[in-house]
Amino acid sequence: MRKDLFDQLVESVKQMKAIEAGRLKPARVTRAEDLLRGKSPNVAALRARFKLSQAKFAALLGISVNTLQNWEQNRRRPDGPAKVLLRVAATRPEALLSATKQKAKRRARRAVL
Fold this sequence. Notes:
By secondary structure, this protein is an all-alpha fold. It folds into 2 domains: 1-30; 39-112, 434 Repressor (Amino-terminal Domain). Helix content is 71%, strand content 0%. It has helices at residues 3-21, 32-37, 43-50, 54-61, 65-72, 81-91, 93-112. It is elongated and about 50 Å long. The two termini are 32 Å apart. The mean pLDDT is 84.
Protein backbone atom coordinates (compact mmCIF):
# COMPACT_ATOMS: atom_id res chain seq x y z
CA MET A 1 0.00 0.00 0.00
CA ARG A 2 1.23 3.49 -0.82
CA LYS A 3 2.38 5.52 2.18
CA ASP A 4 0.09 8.49 1.45
CA LEU A 5 -2.98 6.26 1.19
CA PHE A 6 -2.03 4.46 4.37
CA ASP A 7 -1.62 7.78 6.19
CA GLN A 8 -5.09 8.87 5.00
CA LEU A 9 -6.54 5.60 6.24
CA VAL A 10 -4.90 5.99 9.66
CA GLU A 11 -6.17 9.59 9.92
CA SER A 12 -9.68 8.42 9.00
CA VAL A 13 -9.64 5.77 11.73
CA LYS A 14 -8.47 8.38 14.27
CA GLN A 15 -11.33 10.68 13.24
CA MET A 16 -13.82 7.80 13.52
CA LYS A 17 -12.67 7.05 17.06
CA ALA A 18 -12.88 10.74 18.02
CA ILE A 19 -16.44 10.93 16.64
CA GLU A 20 -17.46 7.79 18.54
CA ALA A 21 -15.96 9.22 21.74
CA GLY A 22 -17.81 12.51 21.24
CA ARG A 23 -14.66 14.63 20.84
CA LEU A 24 -15.37 15.43 17.19
CA LYS A 25 -18.59 16.23 15.36
CA PRO A 26 -19.23 14.22 12.15
CA ALA A 27 -19.08 16.19 8.90
CA ARG A 28 -22.41 14.72 7.83
CA VAL A 29 -24.85 12.09 8.98
CA THR A 30 -26.77 9.92 6.55
CA ARG A 31 -29.45 7.56 7.73
CA ALA A 32 -30.96 4.95 5.44
CA GLU A 33 -34.46 5.56 6.76
CA ASP A 34 -34.21 9.25 5.84
CA LEU A 35 -33.24 8.35 2.28
CA LEU A 36 -36.03 5.81 1.90
CA ARG A 37 -38.71 8.18 3.20
CA GLY A 38 -37.67 11.06 0.97
CA LYS A 39 -39.90 12.18 -1.84
CA SER A 40 -39.02 11.68 -5.48
CA PRO A 41 -36.91 14.40 -7.03
CA ASN A 42 -38.33 16.69 -9.69
CA VAL A 43 -37.03 14.84 -12.74
CA ALA A 44 -37.76 17.60 -15.26
CA ALA A 45 -35.92 20.19 -13.15
CA LEU A 46 -33.02 17.79 -12.65
CA ARG A 47 -32.75 17.20 -16.40
CA ALA A 48 -32.82 20.97 -16.96
CA ARG A 49 -29.89 21.36 -14.55
CA PHE A 50 -27.90 18.91 -16.67
CA LYS A 51 -28.95 20.82 -19.82
CA LEU A 52 -29.69 17.59 -21.68
CA SER A 53 -32.46 16.51 -24.00
CA GLN A 54 -34.83 13.80 -22.82
CA ALA A 55 -33.07 11.25 -25.04
CA LYS A 56 -29.61 12.11 -23.71
CA PHE A 57 -30.69 12.24 -20.07
CA ALA A 58 -32.49 8.91 -20.43
CA ALA A 59 -29.34 7.40 -21.95
CA LEU A 60 -27.27 8.83 -19.09
CA LEU A 61 -29.55 7.13 -16.56
CA GLY A 62 -29.86 3.92 -18.59
CA ILE A 63 -33.63 4.13 -18.98
CA SER A 64 -36.02 4.53 -21.89
CA VAL A 65 -37.24 7.94 -23.05
CA ASN A 66 -40.81 6.78 -22.37
CA THR A 67 -39.95 6.07 -18.73
CA LEU A 68 -38.34 9.49 -18.38
CA GLN A 69 -41.38 11.19 -19.92
CA ASN A 70 -43.69 9.32 -17.55
CA TRP A 71 -41.63 10.53 -14.59
CA GLU A 72 -41.50 14.12 -15.82
CA GLN A 73 -45.25 14.24 -16.44
CA ASN A 74 -46.00 12.57 -13.07
CA ARG A 75 -47.77 9.63 -14.65
CA ARG A 76 -45.35 7.37 -12.82
CA ARG A 77 -42.84 7.81 -10.01
CA PRO A 78 -39.32 6.44 -9.90
CA ASP A 79 -38.78 3.87 -7.19
CA GLY A 80 -36.06 1.62 -5.85
CA PRO A 81 -32.68 1.96 -7.55
CA ALA A 82 -33.97 4.61 -9.98
CA LYS A 83 -34.98 6.85 -7.09
CA VAL A 84 -31.52 6.47 -5.52
CA LEU A 85 -29.82 7.16 -8.85
CA LEU A 86 -31.84 10.36 -9.26
CA ARG A 87 -30.86 11.44 -5.75
CA VAL A 88 -27.20 10.86 -6.62
CA ALA A 89 -27.68 12.88 -9.81
CA ALA A 90 -29.28 15.70 -7.78
CA THR A 91 -26.73 15.81 -4.97
CA ARG A 92 -23.53 14.63 -6.67
CA PRO A 93 -23.86 15.17 -10.42
CA GLU A 94 -20.10 14.80 -10.87
CA ALA A 95 -20.32 11.21 -9.56
CA LEU A 96 -22.94 10.29 -12.13
CA LEU A 97 -21.06 11.95 -14.97
CA SER A 98 -17.72 10.39 -14.05
CA ALA A 99 -19.30 6.92 -13.83
CA THR A 100 -20.77 7.23 -17.30
CA LYS A 101 -17.49 8.57 -18.74
CA GLN A 102 -15.66 5.51 -17.42
CA LYS A 103 -18.27 3.25 -19.01
CA ALA A 104 -17.88 5.02 -22.36
CA LYS A 105 -14.08 4.69 -22.20
CA ARG A 106 -14.37 0.93 -21.60
CA ARG A 107 -16.72 0.59 -24.58
CA ALA A 108 -14.38 2.56 -26.83
CA ARG A 109 -11.42 0.46 -25.73
CA ARG A 110 -13.31 -2.79 -26.51
CA ALA A 111 -14.26 -1.48 -29.96
CA VAL A 112 -10.57 -0.88 -30.76
CA LEU A 113 -9.59 -4.39 -29.73
